[in-house]
Automatic annotation (TrEMBL):
It is a multi-pass membrane protein. This is Transporter. Keywords: Disulfide bond, Membrane, Metal-binding, Sodium, Symport, Transmembrane, Transmembrane helix, Transport. The chain crosses the membrane at residues 27-44, 56-76, 107-129, 181-199, 211-228, 256-281, 293-317, 352-377, 397-422, 428-447, 468-486, 506-526. One of its GO terms (cellular component) is plasma membrane. It is found in: Membrane. Belongs to the sodium:neurotransmitter symporter (SNF) (TC 2.A.22) family. GO terms for biological process: amino acid import across plasma membrane. Pfam families: SNF. Disulfide bonds join C141-C150. Na(+) binds at G35, A37, V38, N42, S267, N299, L364, D367, S368. InterPro entries: Na/ntran_symport, SNS_sf.
């Protein structure tokens, strides 16, 4: 009967927690967390936003948002993941069943992102292979794909283009309306990228933990080497001065503050479920605050280090063109695959620096991709462990199936229309969807579950409660979401047509829709009226405390019982 099935399910669930693997060493989680947080956004999005926001003036709101937004929310996610010892779906369902769809949405977002994010790794591999040529293929205009408007050196003329701008990797069409053909070379490199991902994660945290020793540390060696080289180039000081000397009037712009909040938010990866899933493999008494501070601070320091590297190159380019740094034509994605290759072309030993730079991008991309795939694998294993093991027999085969599905879904991004598909998916997933998801995640954890109960869990694990600063930030952070402004997707000067924007919203809804669906399912299966269940979960969830007598964290669930007169009362039950 149903009661016996429930008991069997609860016993299997507890067995899964007891047998859950943990990181071999805690440093492996720290490095994996750094690798997850530190990504391509630190290399191109941060310098680009800083450049657009007036250089040094951007650092003021950026560091402030790190303190009041980034660190508290990361602390919240790591605490929930480590205490519940589950992936985002089950962790959020235990925190607030009415908003259990938030966990499902985070899994959906991570899976959608991993399908197109690996295309960035594909581009890095393409440029890496091309960097072994002498001269570099984007170093001159003597190639078959160059147009008559090609120039060896950058200019401000709208009628000319540099060799790096004309490089043949994308061979993009004129717009999303024209699909073009499949780029077979990119298709094969995409397949290679997924093979690399699979070989790095197929053993779970045991294999990922070993890989991150290299992929998380090596990019810093490259960044430091690039910085030493760039600072010796003529004009580099002008670029660095632009980076660290603020234009104070820019601080009066709301957009600068919004950009700073968005950069902290997307860079650390709040709401994606990646760090929450990885923290579920931590030892129960691990020091959460130490990991939080390490990951968030190193992430921001990496952005600042990348800023020095990029802006020193900007200074060199402005010296070559004879114009101020503020007048350079710099675009977001083009910073990595157009502007910086252009700078390499004029450096001594250009091939060496190109190989080092694109190999660094590969390492940064791999770390982030590990985390996104792990979210999907962890969540499905938590939910359907018995069924999946019965069908696939081995976890390695299940991971292979997930990678295979993601590979096929990413094929449109390696067609000639691919850059437009990529930009559309990235905008409506990494910007639009994630803001909705994170808002409801904070509602579920900080309001419904409660900052007090979260502090109780933290005290059970580490012996220390969250201080008042973090509890205040967990509540105030809701105000930040109210000022976030959404803008339609665009790629350089190309504005997507209305039907493409509609497709973008459909992409966004494939993840957001799980939030209301999860709430509807909870209201459907639980006894009581709509108002009674809503009151229990959202209005008065703070009245009870969680039992803390087990060495293994107790999964707390809200139980509802109705009297004959349908008067609702609730207790905290342990499973």
């Amino acid at each position: 009967n149903k009661e016996e099935e429930t008991v069997v399910t609860q016993e299997a669930d507890m067995d899964l927690q007891l047998n859950r693997p943990t990181w071999t060493r805690q440093i492996e989680f720290t490095l994996a967390g750094i690798g997850c947080a530190v990504g391509l956004g630190n290399i191109w999005r941060f310098p680009y936003l800083c450049y657009r926001s007036g250089g040094g003036a951007f650092l003021v709101p950026y560091l402030l948002m790190l303190v009041v937004l980034g660190i508290p929310l990361l602390y919240m996610e790591l605490t929930v993941g480590q205490y519940m010892r589950r992936g985002p779906v089950h962790a959020l369902a235990n925190v607030c069943p009415l908003l259990k769809g938030v966990g499902m949405a985070s899994v959906a977002i991570s899976f959608i992102m991993c399908t197109y994010y690996n295309v960035v790794i594909t581009w890095a591999l393409y440029y890496l292979f091309s960097s072994f040529q002498a001269p570099l293929p984007w170093q001159n205009c003597n190639n078959t794909w160059n147009t008559p408007h090609c120039t060896a050196h950058a200019t401000n003329s709208s009628y000319s283009s540099t060799a790096s701008q004309e490089y043949k990797m994308l061979e993009q069409t004129s717009g999303v309306e024209e699909t073009g053909v499949l780029r077979w070379d990119l298709f094969l490199i995409l397949l290679l990228a997924w093979i690399l991902i699979y070989l790095c994660i197929f053993k779970g945290v045991k294999s990922t933990g070993k890989v991150v020793y290299f992929t998380a540390v090596f990019p810093y060696v490259i960044l430091i080497a690039l910085l030493v080289n760039n600072t010796q180039l003529p004009g580099a000081l002008n670029g660095i001065t632009f980076f660290i000397v603020p234009e104070w009037d820019k601080l009066l712009s709301v957009e600068v503050w919004v950009n700073a909040a968005a950069q902290i938010f997307n860079s650390i990866g709040i709401g994606f479920g990646s760090l929450l899933a990885m923290s579920s493999y931590n030892a129960f008494n691990n020091n959460v605050l130490k990991d939080t501070l390490t990951i968030s601070i190193i992430n921001s320091l990496t952005s600042i280090l990348a800023g020095f590297v990029i802006f020193s190159a900007f200074g060199y380019m402005s010296h070559l063109q004879g114009i101020p740094v503020s007048e350079l034509a710099v675009d977001g994605p083009g910073l990595v695959y157009v502007v910086y290759p252009q700078a390499f072309a004029n450096m001594p030993v250009a091939q060496l620096w190109a190989v080092m730079f694109f190999f660094m991008l590969l390492c940064l991309g791999l770390d982030s991709e590990f985390a996104m795939v792990e979210v999907m694998v962890t969540s499905l294993m938590d939910e359907f462990y018995q069924h999946l093991f019965k069908f696939f027999k081995r976890k390695e085969l299940f991971v292979l199936a997930v990678c295979g599905v993601a590979f096929f879904l990413g094929i449109p991004c390696v067609m000639q229309v691919g850059i437009y598909v990529f930009q559309l998916m990235d905008h409506y997933t990494a910007i639009v969807s994630i803001m909705f998801l994170a808002f409801f995640e904070v509602i579920a954890i900080c309001w419904s579950y409660g900052a007090k109960r979260l502090s109780d869990n933290l005290e059970e694990m580490t012996g220390k409660r969250a201080n008042i600063f973090f509890r205040i930030c967990w509540i105030i952070v809701l105000l930040v979401f109210s000022i976030i402004q959404f803008k339609p997707a665009r790629y350089e000067n190309y504005v997507f047509p209305s039907w493409a924007q509609g497709v973008g919203w459909v992409i966004a809804l494939t993840s957001i829709i799980w939030i209301p669906l999860g709430a509807i399912h909870t209201l459907w299966v639980l006894p009581g009226s709509f108002m009674q269940v809503t009151y229990i979960y959202l209005v008065s969830p703070h009245e009870d405390t969680v039992g803390t007598t087990h060495k293994i964290p107790v999964i707390s669930i809200w139980c509802i019982s109705l009297t004959e007169t349908e008067t609702v009362h609730h207790t905290t039950c342990t499973g």
